[in-house]
Amino acid sequence: MKINSKSLVIVLIFYLIHSLSSAQEIKAPSADPTGYLSMGARNCASIFTTNGKSFVGTGMGGQFALHIAKDFNSHWFADWITSNINNLAQRNDFHSGFSMMPEVLSIPAGARRIALYPLAGFCIDYTKFTITSGKKSAPGPNYIERYSFAAQAGCGATIPISDQLDFSLEAHYMLHVGTDVDIALNDNEVTLIKQSGNNLEGHFILAISMDFKLFKLWQKKSS
Hints:
It is built from one helix and twelve strands, in the order αββββββββββββ. The protein has one domain: Porin (Beta Barrel). The chain has one helix spanning 5-20; strands at 36-50, 53-69, 72-85, 89-102, 105-109, 112-131, 136-137, 143-160, 165-178, 181-186, 189-194, 199-216. By secondary structure, it is mostly beta strands. The longest helix is centred in the first third of the chain and has 16 residues, at 5-20. It is elongated. Strand 8 (143-160) and strand 9 form a beta hairpin. Helix content is 7%, strand content 67%.
């Protein structure tokens, strides 16, 4: 996966935010992370299908992580993904959604543990197709926009680097409902065609993220 240097800058910014907020001491969140709010950056890659062919898009984004319970985490994310479609058009996708992540297995890693989990959630998507070919564009719009929503499911793992820093790797499958867009090349002219009605579009997305724990929103009730 291509790593975008801007993501590293975002991580550093989040680290500064974390440092400024460290007046509230974080005491071993790895022991019981319930209630902790984290903030981080992510890189992602996705496989889209257009005109019956698959294309890989790459991008970056950010997310919040909220530990709802000791063995139940959640990610609230936003991604911007760009892909090149046969050198005829560029596809830009803005994803925003959430994943619920119940831990099903943990692997001891020193004083910490690696969490393995399935994930499921919801996502909304804004997509823009823009003609980028040097060929002549047919009469009509140079770009087309569409909106869709998706249910998603997958699996992932979170690896604690320190008490304040987590590294996560996740694989999602997103099934979108929305209008479809085709790209046609006729007589050396490129045309964008927005289909009528709603269609299903599924795609895989792989995300790598780093999250800094900021502070605890609530304390676990004592039994």
